[in-house]
Amino acid sequence: MDLSYFIFLSSGLFLGWSLGANDAANVFGTAVGTKMVRFRTAAVISSFFLILGAVYSGGGTTETLTELGNVNALPGAFMVALSAAASVYWMIKGGLPVSTSQAIVGAIIGWNFYSGKATDLSIVSKIVSTWVICPVLAGILATLIYFLVRSLIKYSKIHLIRQDLYTRIGLIVAGAFGAYALGANNIANVMGVFVDSAPFQTLKIGQLTFSPEQVLFFIGGLAVSSGIFSYSHKIIKTIGNGLMRMSPIVAWIVVVSQSLVLYLFASEKLEAFLLANNLPALPLVPVSSSQAVIGAIIGIGLAKGGRSISWNILGHIALGWIFTPIMAALLCFISLFFLENVFNQVVYLP
Question: Does residue 240 surpass a pLDDT of 70?
Answer without folding.
Answer: no
